């Protein structure tokens, strides 16, 4: 059964340490995705998604421009980030991992999202709707996102570890 991501009721966000003391939070405004749910055999389901890297927003315009520049996402050359699942499960109640190929810039790596099935929501206009929450931790340097000046007092401006969160609602097509 095919389900499409409802962008208006979904959110893709990230958090990364800044100056080792604070956390910078951001999100992506443009993304799309599909989930092919096999309700009889859930481990055979498939997840696919695309994020428009240029849609990054942190609330600070100059920072957003830096994130779009060649030192980070390089959106002129690599406009999209993609994910395609390769394996789902094992299932433990409403929790399960989704493994797949995540591509950022020109680097593709096998990654794991830890997913919580939030359940089916009441149908609106006859359409079935389902909600999921997915979390991931990754090292930005694994994807060529290496820009990071040293500070005069020592240490780095931006942390290497990035926490990702996807709060997704899907609608049956």
Characteristics of this structure?
single chain; 173 residues; mainly beta; Lipocalin; 1 helix; 11 strands; globular
Write structural notes for this entry.
Residues 149-156 have low confidence and may be disordered. The chain has an 8-stranded antiparallel barrel with strand order 1-4-5-7-8-9-10-11. The protein has 1 helix and 11 strands; from the N terminus they run ββββββαβββββ. It has one helix at 61-68; strands at 2-5, 11-18, 22-28, 31-36, 46-52, 56-57, 80-88, 95-104, 107-124, 127-139, 158-172.
Blueprint (SSEs and pairs):
Layout: E1 2-5, E2 11-18, E3 22-28, E4 31-36, E5 46-52, E6 56-57, H1 61-68, E7 80-88, E8 95-104, E9 107-124, E10 127-139, E11 158-172
